[in-house]
Amino acid sequence: MRRPRHLLRRVLVVALVTVLALLGLGAGGFWWATEHYGDQVTRIPHAFPTGPRPPQPEEHKGATTFLLAGVDSRSKRPTTGSDATASLWRYGAQRSDTLMLVHLDTDKGTAYTMSIPRDSWVPIPGHGSAKVNAAFSWGGPPLLIQTVERLTGTRVDHFGVIDWQGFRSLTDAVGGVPVTIPQDTYDPEQHHHFTAGTHVLDGEQALAYVRQRHGLPGGELDRIKHQQEFLRSLVDRIRGDIRLTNPLGVNRTLDAITSTVSVDDRMSNTDLRDLVLELRHLDASDATFTTAPIIRSQMIDGQYALILDRGELRAVWRGAEAGHPPAPGR
To answer: What is the pLDDT of residue 251?
Structure first.
């Protein structure tokens, strides 16, 4: 699977790159654009854990690792982005429904994303072992980052998050996202029928699609495929819709992105400008999607869980950091 960006940095960066390229902005216009839209992105204070963290490996020089989360907040009010009117995290109120680790190497011109299934059974510092999505529920961004860093052995440079409401709003803002469904399925948990064929999904339909696991032969793994396919199509939609002839559409799309996502407060506008400059020439063929290696599924304490091959996971990630990612879809 290709095009590893996520519901936040990837879309924002691609959108900005496309707009700037189309408009042919000079240095002044470039600075204004990144400052204007960068200032609209909500920053999360104290997102990173305190105490010892993994060192940056030598291969990490010139590269950036993001941890990206989609949060299943049941809040009736937005919790991410500039539209947020409720807290991003409250103990026990939210879990990370989607989790992706993204490694961008601008020196090598490569991008690599590993999806970590929400049902992965992992050690959570201070809480024993549990599903990885419980880390956000119990300790917010710091505990989630700490859990993933200890699982993978890598250092997370930046964190980004979007909630269900933001996901729906972003999808609607781009006029819906086309997806191709290979066969008819029914999700008994969401009471939703999915009809085979290519459909342009609105926000509500898209959320049901990326959350579906019941009624799919591969369960959680098929859901991850849905999420990756959707993100690829979302990025295509944004790149296709942002045109010089539609400046209002450009503003509307970028405003929607910045109003629905939140990032750590260490992500400065300068960081954003550097990413835009460095990723201008990154091609989709240089991007890879994969899923954390799984040994088996099993029931633990009455819960469905996935047991990861932690040694293989670390080896694969080290290879990606060194510029030798596995074949797509591995």
So the answer is: 65
User: Residues 6 or more apart from 58 whose CB is under 8 A from it?
Assistant: none
On whether the 9-321 domain is CATH 3.30.750.24, my answer is no
Q: What is the DSSP letter of 125?
A: T
Residues ≥6 apart with Cβ < 8 Å to 270: none
Q: Which amino acid is at 200?
A: V
Identify the DSSP state of 268. Answer: -
Task: Tell me the Cα Rg of the chain.
Answer: 19
**DSSP annotation of 191:** T
Structure tokens at 264: 């750590």
Question: Burial, 143: exposed, middle or buried (Cβ in 10 Å; 0-12, 13-18, 19+)?
Answer: buried
Across the beta sheet with 110-115, the strand order is: 42-44, 262-264, 158-163, 63-71, 96-105, 110-115, 287-291
The residue type found at 140 is G
Q: What residues contact 316, with CB distance under 8 A and at least 6 apart?
A: 114, 290, 293, 325, 326, 330
| Residue of higher predicted confidence among 282 and 2 | 282
Q: Which of 256, 164, 272 is nearest to 211 (CA)?
A: 164
Instruction: Note the pLDDT tens digit of each residue in 93-105.
Output: 566 678 888 888 7
CB 79 within 8 A of CB 87: yes
Is the pLDDT score of 18 beyond 70? no
